[in-house]
Amino acid sequence: MKILLALVVLLIVLLQCRLWYGDGGIKEIEAYQQQMDDLSKQVAEKSARNKALYAEVEDVRKGQEAIEERARYELGMIRDGETFFQVLE
Predict the structure, then answer these.
(1) Contact at 8 Å (CB) between 67 and 60?
(2) What is the pLDDT tens value at each position of the chain, 89 positions in all?
(3) Is the distance from CB of 77 to CB of 71 less than 8 angstroms?
(4) pTM (two decimals)
(5) Domain range holding 38?
(6) How far apart are CA 84 and CA 67, in angstroms?
């Protein structure tokens, strides 16, 4: 009877070890869950960036004002008859 009890306890210990540390065990599942959370966060950030870029593209397609604004701020262009002033601080 003691041998049978010892075998059952040993079997339970082996199964617990496999559950916690084996392939597809709880530790591995937690690591995969953390990785999935990180990837979901990256996807959300990139999705927000894509929406902003799409809105900017639509703005440029629809109006001259957006093109003029980009030309002024990014390329330093001015209109005819305007004077450019650079303020140094």
Answers:
(1) yes
(2) 889 889 998 998 888 877 777 777 788 888 899 999 999 999 999 999 999 999 888 887 887 777 787 788 888 788 888 887 778 88
(3) yes
(4) 0.52
(5) 26-78
(6) 19
DSSP states of 4-42: HHHHHHHHHHHHHHHHHHSTT-HHHHHHHHHHHHHHHHH
Quick check: is 86 in a domain? no
Which amino acid belongs to residue 76? G
Evaluate whether residue 65 is within a structural domain.
Answer: yes
Instruction: Provide the 8-state DSSP code for 72.
Output: H
Among the listed residues 36, 18, 40, 38, the one whose alpha carbon sits nearest the alpha carbon of residue 27:
18
Question: Cα Rg for the chain, rounded, in angstroms?
Answer: 32
What's the total number of domains in the chain? 1
Rounded (10°) CA dihedral 15, 20, 22, 25: 110
